[in-house]
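Researcher: Next sequence.
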Amino acid sequence: MTATSQYLIDTYRASQHATPMPPPPGRDDMAVLRAARSYQQFRAVLDGGEASHPWRAALRRALTRPHPC
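Model: Next structure:
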């Protein structure tokens, strides 16, 4: 059973029992990824490192990567 079919079944069941509708699948995916990244940065600081910033890291990779001529 896919997440979408389970969501449809849960939505139907909620409408029949007058309970709140469940959140759609994938609604909080980006929030979970942000929280994981923030936790990784937090752990890096606790371990004595520095919190890397994703935009700065991407810019550093783009600028320091050797380009073929």
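Model: The chain has one domain: 3-63. The chain has three helices and no strands.
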